[in-house]
Amino acid sequence: MNVSVVLFTRDLRVRDNPALSAGCRAGATVPLFVLDDAILSGRSATPNRAAFLAAALAELDGELRAMGTRLVVRRGSVVAEVDRVAEQVGANTVHLAADVSAYSRRRESALRLRLGERGRELRVHESAVMTVAPDAVTPSTGRDHFAVFTPYFRRWQQVHRRAPLSRPTGPALPPIAAGELPLAADICAGEPSPKLSVGGERTGRELLREWLSGPIGQYAARGDDLPADATSHLSPYLHFGCLSAAEILHRTDTDDEGGLAYARQLAWRDFNHQLLAARPEAAWRDYHDRSITWRDDPNAARAWCEGRTGYPIIDAGMRQLRAEGWMPGRARLIAASFLAKTLRVDWRTGAEHFLHWLVDADIANNQLNWQWAAGTGTDTRPNRVLNPLRQAERFDPDGTYVRRWVPEVAHLEGVAAHRPWREKGGVAGYPAPIIDVAGM
Ligand SMILES: Cc1cc2nc3c(=O)[nH]c(=O)nc-3n(C[C@H](O)[C@H](O)[C@H](O)COP(=O)(O)OP(=O)(O)OC[C@H]3O[C@@H](n4cnc5c(N)ncnc54)[C@H](O)[C@@H]3O)c2cc1C
User: Fold this and answer.
1) Residue 199 Cα, ligand 1 centroid: separation in angstroms?
2) Per-residue model confidence as pLDDT tens digits over 145-195
3) Distance 95 CA to ligand 1 centre (A)
């Protein structure tokens, strides 16, 4: 009998999953997830991501059970556990989704080496994490990646894409102990954010159905409107692969203005991934060396992290981050620009804080958006500085967003909520601005 192992990583779904479909097509299959000690002992293990992951694994197991199989869970070194499971069931092939981070590349090489030593094959499936493989969109100059988004997006729109795969049927599970599905606390100790979204393919598909049924139509007009909260909130489902980016794109009507604007954001995601695939060191090293001298200012960095800068538009975003493990893209951009460009604190400090709290924290998207905001990345106008007050007036014109997240200014009407320092005697319990900006 032909037996294979499908190693889930951040493709935690049964629909449009090229690795799972290939395993099921070939014969009996072990759907395997390894709680990887190397990841769980690092910065990626946070209470928010642990809670989302535990729920996503439970939903994945539910989906697999509906197919007549179940999720097999192990904990330890990913290479040793895959090796052991493959040996136990006599698998000749292991299927894996391709990924782009330095760690995922090392994992892939180590797996290939170990499995090769045992006479087993590692089959790596492209376009499971992105809508297109990184090398499917390359510049005609011969360079190995695009460094500017607009030409990337033009090429990206022309790429031929595979049709989404449906849920495979009838994979037999070879005799093997399934192991326990982990609770969040088994993955990482600590309380998650109180308003964290719930992980999983079923939950993600429900949100996607709702998003595509109407709200997406308003995305071009309202995606940056902070009080409207009119974005998809699908980023954690994309990060963990509870939803397939390729399938979402396939189901998005790009003839519609809202659909096209939304597809463009999915292209930004792919753009960052292709850049990280080509330059894995850009996760922590400046992509463009602009010889910036960062200020060592732990007090300013702490005020920013805690949402106590004295600028309600910054503090609202930073407090939402702690409460939900998520922030709207516009709020991320304003907060990141403020830290890196206004306070001149090294972008890595902010990126680290985001990685800790964001449930969608993603090396490609987080680090490269931080670099964009700091001027060391792919922004073609690296010196632009976003003035927080102008951003506030433009994207939260009535102050509704800041009143929602900063209770100290909740009594201030309209735009007054953006400038509490103008109130006679200030606002009780709320700090004065930690730095001056134009337009105070
Ligand atoms: C400083 C900073 C840090 C960020 N860190 C992350 C991160 O760790 N993980 C993450 O997924 N996104 C990150 N983003 C990108 C973006 O802010 C989030 O993807 C988005 O806000 C998530 O909300 P949504 O799903 O409602 O997005 P929508 O507005 O509905 O967008 C749809 C999808 O497109 C992708 N997307 C949207 N904007 C971007 C972008 N600028 N770059 C790349 N992909 C994008 C996301 O997958 C998102 O789910 C960051 C942006 C900034 C400025």
Assistant:
1) 17
2) 999 999 999 999 999 998 999 999 877 899 999 999 999 999 999 999 999
3) 28
pLDDT tens sequence across 342-393:
999 999 999 999 999 999 999 999 999 999 999 999 999 999 999 999 999 9
DSSP 246: H
State how beta strands 93-97 and 121-125 pair. parallel
CB atoms within 10 A of CB 27: 16
User: Which amino acid, residue 185?
Assistant: A
Q: What is the pTM of this model?
A: 0.98
Q: Give the whole-angstrom CA distance, residue 156 versus residue 368.
A: 19
In eight-state DSSP terms, residue 295 is -
Ligand 1 proximal residues by C-beta, below 6 Å: 223, 231-235, 238-239, 262, 265-266, 268-269, 272, 328-329, 332-333, 336, 354, 358, 360-362, 365-366, 369-370, 373
Q: Position of tokens 């620009």?
A: 337
Ligand 1, atom 21, lies closest to the CA of 329
In the chain the first and final C-alpha atoms are separated, in Å, by: 73
Ligand 1, atom 48: closest residue by C-alpha:
235
